[in-house]
Structures are given as structure tokens and as C-alpha cells.
Amino acid sequence: MSMSNRWIDADFETIFREHYPRIVRVVRRVLQRESEAEEVCADVFLRLYRKGPGVAVGGRVGGWLYRTGTRASIDALRANQRRGVEEQLEGNEFVSADGDSDGPLAGLLRQAHIAEIRGVLAKLKLEKAQLLLLRHSGLSYLEIAEAMQMSANSIGTKLARAEAEFSALYERQQRQSLKRQQLQAAKEGQ
After folding, report:
1. Which of 37, 133, 150, 176 is the most exposed place for a label (fewest CB within 10 A)?
2. Cβ–Cβ under 8 Å, residues 27 and 41
3. Span 8-18, average pLDDT
4. How far apart are CA 167 and CA 162, in angstroms?
């Protein structure tokens, strides 16, 4: 690693090759569009390059990348919602979380469910959304603590609180959606 504020190309390339697949997977879970996920990841690695090799001192570059990647993806999700780009997924850009394709109806239902989850995720405070994303991306409590620069002892409690808030928001959203459907059905029945 270079001691200056500039990267040695081989060092940066090594970090990129090692971490890019995992970071893009986390970002893709939030954004669901391949092109947007890759754009956000490119921005994250550009930020790393501009910050210089000091970020990698002590082997904490992975945590920095996870933290920066989840923040950037949540910011992009919120920006999309502000612009009203809630669910304009094109068929060829949709990335199935589990890789199976049961058919068009199952795909539409899965997309609708993912949109609901992303909507609730965007309403959470950034830290709580990041904790949930990192945990559901397969990171251990210790890895989450490192990425979020928190005490490993507090991760379980913080995750439980984030999950409880997410569940409450999701249930409220489901009730509101059901009421809207019932009102719409009542209007159509008159």
C-alpha cells in the first residue's frame, strides 16, 4: 500500500476485484435494476479512489465499502421515490433475488412485493436500513459492527429494533393498501 495520498494501481485493482462482487450484490438488493446498481457501485469505488489509500489502512476497507454502498443505494432509492420512479422496472432489467422464474404472474407479484419492501426500507432511518441490508446480505454481527463502526455487543439490540420498526411500518402499509383496495371495490360496486 502506498504511503502517499495516491493509490498504486495494482493495490486499488486488488481491492476492486476482491470487494466489487459483494458490494454490487448488496446494492442490487436495494435497487433491483442492474444498470442502477452498477452505477452506484462505480460511484462508491470512485469515492474510494478519491479518498486515497488511507481508507484501507488497518484492513477496514471492506467495512467502508459496505457502509458507503448501502448509504448510496438507500439514497438512490429515496431519490427515485421522490421523482416518482417507484416501479418502472423493465422486464429485462429485473434481477430476481433467487434466480428462478415461475412465470409472468409470479414475477409481477414478486416485483410488487419487492416494491413494498423497498418503500418501507426507504422510510427507515439510514442506520436502521443499513443494519437490515447488511444482515440480510449475509454478514455476521461482527462484520456488521466493523462495517458500521459500532460495538459488536450492540448489533443484536440495534438489529432487533430495526426489524421491529420495519415490521410495524410494513404492517401499517399493508393495512393502508387493503383499505384503499376496499374503497376502490366499493366505488366500483356502486
Report:
1. 176
2. yes
3. 91
4. 9
Q: Tell me, what's the pLDDT at 127?
A: 92
Report residue 58 as a C-alpha cell. Answer: 488497518
The region of weakest confidence among 8-12, 101-105, 139-143, 161-165 is 101-105
- Please report, for the chain, the start and end positions of each structural domain, with discontinuous segments joined by +: 9-189
Q: Which three cell numbers stand for residue 184?
A: 376502490
Asked whether the predicted pLDDT for residue 50 surpasses 70, the reply is yes
Per-residue pLDDT, 86: 45
